[in-house]
Structure formats: C-alpha cells, structure tokens
Amino acid sequence: MNRNGLLGEIRKNRALLLMLAPAVLFFLVFAYVPMAGIVLAFKQYNHTGGVFGSPWNGLDNFRFFFESGNAWLVTRNTALYNIAFIIVNNVLQITVAILLFEVAGKWFRKIAQSVMFLPYFISWVVVGAIAYNLFNYDVGTINSILTTFGMEPIDIYNTPSYWPVILVIVSAWKTLGYGTVMYLAAITSIDTEMYEAAEIDGANIFQRIFKVTIPNLYPTIIILVLLAIGNIFRGDFGMFYNMVGNNGLLFSNTDVIDTFVFRSLTTSNEIGLSAAVGFYQSILGFATIMLANYAVRRYDKDRALF
Amino acid sequence: MSASATQTSSKAQTAGKRRGTDVLLLQIIGYIVITVLAVFCFVPFLLVVSSSFSEEQSIIENGFQLIPTTFSTEAYSVLFKYPEQMLRAYGVTIAVTAIGTVAGLFLTAMTAYVLQRKDFKWRNQFSFFFFFTTLFSGGLVPWYLMIIKYLHLKDTLLVLILPMLLNVFYIIVMKSFMSSIPEAITESAKIDGAGDFRIFMQLILPLAKPALATIGLFIALGYWNDWYNALLFISNENLMPLQYYLYKMLGNMEGMRKAMMQSGAVVNVSLPTESLKMAMTLVATGPILLAYPFIQRYFVQGLTIGSVKG
Predict the structure, then answer these.
(1) Closest Cα partner for B78 from B267, B276, B248?
(2) This prediction's pTM
C-alpha cells in the first residue's frame, strides 16, 4: 500500500479511528507500555535509577526465585487449586443445571436459582468476613457448634491442612450460581425433539439425562473447561488474599503465584524479584492459553478464541 | 431392562410428562440436592445478619450462633453514632461507581460499535490489539509502577476509576450484541449524510439498551466490589472506598475505634467488636442485597449472551 493510499484510508475512517482512540490509549497505557517494564525482571531495581536506569543483574532474580524453593511451591499450589476448582465447580454446576431443568416447580426453580446466584455478587472482602465468622478460633460459628456438642474446638487459621478443602468449597460456593446459569442456557437450547425421541424409544429419565442431555452438553463443557485450563497458572488473588491474608503459617498450602508476587512487591519491596515472577507467570499463562486454544480449535473451529 | 413395558406405557401417555417411578425419583433427588445447595449458599448471609444482631457478651461467651439466643442492636447504634468514616467510604464508592460505570459503558459501547462495523478496514487488527492484552501482560509490577511513578495516581480518586475503565471481555460481548443490529441502519444514515459518531449516539445507542443495561451492571458491580486498587494505591483514609474500608476495619478494630472517636467526642466505651464487624459487613453489602432481586435477570442475560459467543 502506498503512502497516499494509507493516508486516504485514514482520512476516510477518521471518525471511526477517533472513536477508537480512547480505548487504544487505555490499553497502550495500562497494558502495552507496562510490557516494556518486563526488563525489570532482569534488573536490580533501585529508586534513583528507576525502571530504565537500574543496573542489570542477568538472571539473578529468577535464580533466587527458583533456588529458594518458592517457585515450585507457588506454581504447584496455583495449578493444583485451579485443577480442583475446575473439576469440582463444573461437576457441581452441571449437576445443578440438569436437576434445575428437570425439577417441576417453577417457583422453586426460580427461587433456588436466585439464592445460588447470590454469592457471585458480593466482594471477596465480605467473603473474608464470613470466613472469619465461621472459622475464628474463639468466636467462630464452627467452633460454637463443635463445643455445643461437647467436641474440642479446632484451630482452622493455624492448620494448613484444612485449607485446600476450605478453598475448594468457597470457590464452589461463589461460582455455583454463575456456572449453573451458563449450563442451564446450554440445556435449554437442546432440541426437545431429542427428548421426545428418547422417550418413545423407552428411555427412562436417567437414561435420557446420560444419553441425551449430557452428550449434548459436551461442546459447552469442553469449551469452558479448556478455557479454564488456559488460565490454570492465574491464581484468584481476591480469594486467596481475603481468605488467608498474610497468615504465613498457612502459606505452604495456600500461597499462589499471585499472592507471592503481591507480597514480594508490597511487603518486602523486592521489585526485581516480583517482576521476574510476574514475567514467569505471564509466560506460563501465555503458553497454556495458546495450547488450550489450539485444543479448542481442533475440537470446534468456531468456538476458538482466535 | 423392562424396555417393552415402559415403551407401551410411554406410548399410551404420549407427549405429556410421564409419571413413572424414575421421574418421581429424580424429582425427589432434585428437590433434595437443590434445597441443600441453596441453603448452603444462603446460610453464610444469615450468619452475618444474626451475628450482627447478637449481644456482644453472648458472642464472647458462646461464639457466633446461627440461631441467636440474644437480640441487640448495639452494634448498629455504635455504627451509626459515629458514621462519618462509613459515610465517606460510601460517598467514595458511589462516586467511583457512578463515574466509572457511565464512562466505562460509553467507551465500551463506542469501541464495540467501531469494531463490529463491517466496512471498517482495520477492525480485525484492532480487535487483536485489544484481545492480545488478555493473553499476555507485563505482570503486576510494571503496571503498578506505571500508575505510581509515571501517572502519579497514588491517593487520587482517579486511580479507583481508571484501571477498571475498560475490559476486553465486555467489549467482545457488546460487539457481538451490536452485530445483531441490522447494518442497514448505519448504511441508510450514512446516505442521509450522518457522521459515524452521530450514528452511534443517536441510532445505535438507543437500540443497544438491553446490552447497555447488562454490561453497565457488570461494570457497576465491579466498581462497587473493588478493594484491590485501593489496597495497592490508597493510603489516604478519606479516599477509601467502602469495601476497602471494611477490609481495614475487619483487620484492625483498634484503628476503627480511633477513627470512630476522631469526631472529638471522647467516649471511652468498649466497642462491641465482634457484632460490629458483622454489622459493618452487612451495611457494606446492603445496597447489593437490596438491588439484587431487580438486577439479577440482567446478569443472567449477560452470561447467556457471553456464553453464546465468548
């Protein structure tokens, strides 16, 4: 394309380009320009030098991260939690969506769906407050119940082994309604003729669910799960931070990449290290999402992200 | 399998719902499982309510109870006795949510409109430009330094608004909604000599109302529930949004006490700490719980649009 052609195109589209300008500026400032800040991962940051003037230190930040043992710990935690969330949340959401679809009462269905959707709307801070209400050693509801039945109170905030279970339950609780809505939409769009055909063929309702409903959900399930797998190295910071906070005692079982980066930045002020870990996470995330997208594309070209 | 038996009975009853034992069994399972899960989703909210209305002394002795044995509004009367901090936090959150939602929604719609215009030559390139930011990022640190060191937004109201202004996912959902508006509208308006911006403002925006309502509520909820930007960028107490204020108070009751006493009235009462925490939680969540029955269906709509074409 020659220069005149390009200028002509720009002039022809100038109104549309102007309308795009704020969004382009936004993503330049908050996404693209910060990408240049990745150089910090290879630097020994100091305040006078700033981002570009600080001295290089090669791979020292990465070496420190990997040799401290933290790399394996937080990567493993992030991936394992996300895998557990994906499995538990999806199984639950699909089950509830199918049951909601089959259960007769219209009002029951409506109210149940509304109630289950409620946790989606509250902030992680409020979830943290609820967790405090339940798990606090001295006044927590769980210990109130245990002592009422003459049992010993349990010290949840000082016992790392409880937390994988707690966090999986919290995640299921927060996302149940949201996921159910998505799966319910997919179930509702299944052609009712298939049900009628199954019924005429003598299938009972369970056979119908397993032979008609669930196979028809496969596309939705596969897409949602693959996309979730693409994000397997991104921890839900809001959840982990509000549930666990800076309770170092629990970190062996609860520290994820995102909370580690946040602490390195804000409490220990290790700019270089946290930039390096952030970069490491971005690379891992980019690789997994490309793989997941490749898988979606092979499965169903139209559903791929790109 | 008694296939032949069921076959005859189903044929006899044709299209209507068959009332076999299998159906009945599923209904029973369905009602039980869903009731249990719905209760499980709801009980935590009840806990907060009942704890906030409990007597402090009873909480200290017996802990929080799902079914309270005492009733007291002490926590609320303390909370509303020194409401300055809480009201200020409410004010910050309302301002941020209002400005952020209007500005963010407008920009989301404008961007989406351009990206779905089939006659816009570079729409694929620009779409990719936006989309790529969801695949790869510089991470927390460069973003943080950008805001602190280069934009100098620390401790400003803007820092609570700007970073959340646009979200690629919302642009995509809006775009897919707008591509269902007939192209002929844009085309005929162009023939009549209307500019692109005017077409967007006067013709497209009114037609996009359902999507605007849905996306607008998603954006508003995001702003209302945000505490993360405040955690990173706000240290001035006067600029704390509601959720972050709650976060601070939950972690630091002594600070809460001081803040409450700041009004000058030297009151050396012992605060009903535990019930107060729960009362604050409820007051911070209140507007959402009140609005919930009315806004819920827009979220369902939004998720459904989004899941059709992600």
Answers:
(1) B276
(2) 0.90
